[in-house]
Amino acid sequence: MEWLSEFGAIAAMQGFNGLSVFCVLLLMALGLAIIFGQMGVINMAHGEFLTIGAYTTFIVAVLTERFAPAFGPYYFFLAIVMSFFIAGAIGWVVEWAMISRLYHRPLDTLLATWGLSLIMQQIFRSVFGAREVSANLPEWLMGSLQLTDTIEIPRNGLFVMGLTILLTATIFLMMYRSRWGLQVRATVQNRAMSRAVGINTKRVDRMTFALGCGVAGVAGAAFTTIGSTGPTSGSLYIVDTFLVVVFGGAASLLGTIASAFSIAQAQSIMEFFMSGSMAKVLTLLTVVGILMLRPQGLFSIKVRK
Amino acid sequence: MNSTLDRFVGGKQGAIGLAILAALILVVFPLLLDAFRLNMVGKYLTYAFVAVGLVLCWGYGGILSLGQGIFFGLGGYCMAMFLKLEASDPESTKIQSTPGIPDFMDWNQITELPWFWEPFNSFGFTLLAVIAVPVILALVIGVAMFKRRVGDVYFSIVTQAIALILTVLIIGQQGLTGGVNGITDLKTLMGWDIRSDEAKLILYFVNAFLLLGCILIGKFILTSKLGRLLMAMRDKEERVRFCGYDVAAFKIFVFCVGAAFAAIGGAMFTLQVGFMSPSFVGIVPSIEMVIFCAVGGRLSLLGAVYGALLVNFGKTYFSETLPELWLFLMGGLFIAVVMYFPNGLAGLWQSHGQKWLVRLQTKLRKPTPPAPLPRNDKRDDGESKPLAAAEPSKLETSV
Predict the structure, then answer these.
(1) What percentage of chain B carries pLDDT values higher than 70?
(2) Helix, strand or coil for residue A252?
(3) For B74, B145, B271, B390, which has the most beta carbons within 10 A of its beta carbon?
(4) Which of chain B's residues have a Cβ under 8 Å away from the Cβ of A125?
(5) How close, in Å, is residue A56 to chain B by CA atoms?
(6) Of B319, B312, B294, B316, which is closest to residue B304 (Cα–Cα)?
(7) Tens digit of pLDDT for each residue in B85-112?
(8) With an 8 Å Cβ cutoff, are A115 and B148 in contact?
(9) Where are the domains of chain B?
(10) Chain A partners within 8 Å of B150 (Cβ)
(11) CA–CA dist A89, A83 (Å, integer)
(12) Taking the CB of residue A237, how many other CB atoms lie within 10 A of it?
């Protein structure tokens, strides 16, 4: 019977591992699902907004340590809020200065935002240095929970998971249950008609983009609990993130969740049997293969075009 | 006869432009630059192959491939595999535990040449593979994507993903591909030392002539009916489809041509630089290749060459002197080109340079009886050109 419990332990740990990868992917993809999925803007600088969130958290951590050590254990909540607003504000400016002039040229948006990402990376490098930094985690995020003798679950993983659920639920409520979400979806489906019924589509666009960037900032803040932050850490995953959103079906939040889940689980299961790079190659190949057979992704909304 | 030739090079202006470029790379550079710098220009010109292919795919076909590095890399790797096999003959690798196989395989405890390396012992096969492998891959991607009418944005993302897959694969399979370092220490081509200055000069000229050949092929495609269909497709795909044309077939064709050009560039890169590594395959180099094309002008085959040369000169210059500044400049260049000069250098030349030239001409001719030159028009050729060749670059991008 011993092998069975051992197998169970491995399966549980492996499953949890997959769940953490899933949360990471989903956190990154959520912002993009709003920006790319809803608005159709290819924001190659999305990874950099993530990095902004991570660096904001780092700054907040350093500042609390220096000026308000008593506040130490709770700085993280402030950091999340700050990350959201700072990344969102920068996103707002970027939309105003750049994206809004390129809505009718999606491929050019891709190139322009790539240029933006290069500039932002260099700014990070000039300000924070090329070396990776990491914030000191509060006590309650360190260590792991001992469930049984063989199964232990890291606390930061649990925290990220909780944050992911909270964020997803908030975005879901905003997109599908609020008046603002209704306006966003109306604008996406038919811009001219939305304007005709009195929606200020320009404002909706700007707010949507800012929200997407803000969500990326929160994701970045969450990442500081898992790994350290460097100038290019955000851009490393930009292609995977795009694949998650495309694979899920661009305009569907549910699709994004499903695709993040399947990609993450596939990758972590395969990693158990082969090297990490081959697991990644196989996962990506499968995703690209499925996309070639079903270009609209897993879930798609039926719209008359 | 004359009119066919005229159409082929794109009229008088096209001929002059081509002659200037040919003079620049065939005469001016070899005369002015020392062997080291000339080799560097040769390296930049290999990127120009990719940029010329991108003008066809992106500027005229409306398909933005963010994975041209895949084809550049595959072409380069095919050539590198041949050269590596030649460099690792049993004689010079006798200190290895398995003599006769490339050194990196020996370091990774591989004792036998893998099956897909075997055919690269033959030079003929290698030359074929340089073109065939990338084109077949492009064909597969193209058929899968375009037959299903995948939108342009999705196509870009998928090509990018494939570039990522290929890089991860090459790096991961170190024993078979040389890993991060790539395939290095290439010495001879059929017994001919490619590292000597003389060989580099010859390779430079081979490269230059191949590039001019590719430009001519590109011009031929663009001035033929196919070129007009490509433009029509880019601007109103549905209408071309309703006219009864198989839109997907044209897209696949132009994508394959772009891949073949990139592959030739890659193979010439390997020959001139002497190594090939995954850092020329991935996402970042692929996007940089797009910027060469965008800076030069996405609608101008000749512009793409100048774009590749200028951006690379800038890159070399700034990364030697002010490395921090380079990324700012590069990023700024991306944004500026896209937002303010969507037709790049060639577009600027068309809107400003030519007007200036006309003014200069009128000024020079003033003493003679008043020449009826329209000031705001292009130069008066005094002959009517076929519409197709007239001014393809005047067409606005509507993507």
Answers:
(1) 89
(2) coil
(3) B74
(4) 324, 327
(5) 22
(6) B294
(7) 888 888 777 777 777 788 888 888 888 8
(8) no
(9) 7-344
(10) 295
(11) 10
(12) 18
